[in-house]
């Protein structure tokens, strides 16, 4: 019985400290995209004016993807002002059916270094032609 109490106390202490391990001020917050929408309203009137011409949506966001070996998902990070912000995790069906994984380090899913280098050179060449 004493061993059970000891294990229970250790478990509760571990759980209690892990809940408060991340402080709120260390979290990175993303500004809402729709904060730039202007909603002009008057409390006394029932008409609302929504100006859709002044919405400034981001046109091009950089995304960094990396495979999480624990969850077997691709963790995605948005690159905003030279900072990486966790966005979401995706399940790529291709990663389950192919022997290799696709992420930012291996965008073509090459299985060996020769294929990766060759496909990288071809990709750079094709990107130069498109621009």
* Share of helical residues: 25-40%
**Which stretches are low in confidence, meaning pLDDT under 50 for 5 or more residues running?**
18-37
**Biggest sheet: strand arrangement:** 3-4-5
Major beta sheet summary: 3 strands, antiparallel
Q: What is the global morphology?
A: flat
Query: What percent of residues are in strands?
Result: 15-25%
Average pLDDT, all residues: 68
Computed structural class: alpha+beta
**Count of distinct strands:** 5
Specify Rg, calculated over alpha carbons.
24 Å
Number of contiguous helices: 3
Encode the helix/strand succession as letters.
HEEEEEHH
Q: In angstroms, what separates the terminal alpha carbons?
A: 72 Å
Overview of this protein structure:
With 131 residues, the protein is an alpha+beta fold. The chain has a domain of 73 residues. Helix content is 31%, strand content 24%. The strands form two sheets. The chain has a three-stranded antiparallel sheet with strand order 3-4-5, with no helix packed on it. Strands 1-2 form a two-stranded antiparallel sheet. A hairpin with a 6-residue loop joins strand 1 and strand 2. The longest helix has 18 residues. The protein is flat, with a radius of gyration of 24 Å. This is DUF3575 domain-containing protein. It comes from Bizionia argentinensis JUB59. Keywords: Signal.
